[in-house]
User: Fold this.
Amino acid sequence: MNRGAYYKEKLSARKLLRCYEMAPPKITQYLNSEIQFVISKTRPSYLVLELGCGYGRVVKNLAPFAEWVVGIDISKESLELARSYLKGLGNCSVFLMDASQMAFDSCTFDSVFCIQNGISAFGVNQKCLVAESIRITKENGLLLFSSYSPKIWKARLEWFNLQSELGLIGEIDEDKTCDGTIVCRDGFKATTVSENQLVELFDEYGLKASVTEVDESSIFACARKTNTAMKPINGESSS
Assistant:
């Protein structure tokens, strides 16, 4: 089962919620630090899009700081939970959509973000994902993509082991798990994207991304959409 299908069919909705509820303190800090970083880049007038919104965890936190927050996900079950989780918030909406093939018009959003290693976890062509994100971002709009910092490896592995013990993911294959990659015996594989890979992905489309390490737990690529013609997608994955 590929990564995208895994989150769609096995690790979705309340199982996904459970992953965050039982996160160790260091992981909870990491998750909150990512949200705060996105908030710091958001303005009250922004129309914002989150790629891979799950049950709405980040959307809910971001809503007070933007004019409108949109989330998309490929899991129908997660989105059903999100609609309940976000009930009462008047400036949020979620849609069933593949982040690498979005139905939004070009130049729609002030900011598009994909955090918590979504660029790897989605299991889609990373170049297509970045190209689509650039397409739907307004001129001078902001793109934010994050992956794990190598410095959080120990806490990340602990978190995944706890998920495995609870049956949320498969048994960890300790022989194959190393160097930022976590492998489960049921076929699930969690990888990361390096700082250089993030920069190269945006450079492919003529955008210069700056990379910031946040709280020694995540690395963020931040890029402004400029009036630069994007190169054609060659269909190859960057990882």
Observations:
- Residues 232-239 have pLDDT under 50 and may be disordered.
- The beta strands are 47-51, 68-73, 92-96, 109-114, 137-148, 182-183, 189-190, 210-214, 218-224.
- The CA atoms of residues 213 and 219 lie 4 Å apart.
